[in-house]
Design goal:
alpha+beta; 6 strands; about 25% strand
């Protein structure tokens, strides 16, 4: 499904929230490593093994993007539902315009190649888009939240 133009993933039928795990990332020396560990611990058993690897990769990419482009990664929230899980990372500042622009460019065949095949960066959102069932960007007080949805079910949409 890819990038959700709406500000939340509320249109997906995930069922009632089963559980939630929130953790601060800005208190850890290596937020990416800590996020990987948390995702592995919490998500294991809720999604197929192939999606667990994707969820860990997406969490790492979103945390790294927050560190590199938005003043730091503040909080990781993992929620699990009967039909999937969400992984959300809140950053330290308002970067919604930048990330929303990058998301729109990602789906523009003319602009998406402008990063270049040999560039060192610029593929984080493409990885998120490829690995997650869907994802979105939400502006919140004091920052931006990027949320990725992982669902083993093929039809969780509206």
């Amino acid at each position: 499904m890819g990038f959700a133009a709406s500000t939340t993933l509320g249109q997906f039928r995930l069922g009632d929230l089963i559980g939630e795990r929130r953790t601060l990332l800005n208190t850890h020396v290596s937020p990416c490593s800590y996020a990987r560990t948390m995702v592995k611990q919490v998500v294991s058993g809720w999604v197929p093994a192939s999606q667990l690897d994707d969820a860990v990769l997406v969490a790492t990419e979103v945390v790294a993007n927050a560190i590199n482009h938005a003043g730091g990664a503040e909080e990781l929230t993992i929620r699990w539902y009967p039909s999937g899980i969400t992984i959300a990372v809140r950053d330290a500042m308002n970067g919604a315009d930048t990330i929303t622009h990058r998301a729109s460019v990602l789906h523009d065949p003319i602009c998406s190649g402008s990063t270049g095949q040999l560039a060192e960066g610029g593929r984080g959102l493409a990885l998120v888009d490829h690995c997650a069932t869907a994802w979105c960007v939400e502006l919140v007080p004091g920052g931006t939240v990027v949320t990725a949805l992982f669902s083993p079910e093929k039809d969780v949409a509206r």
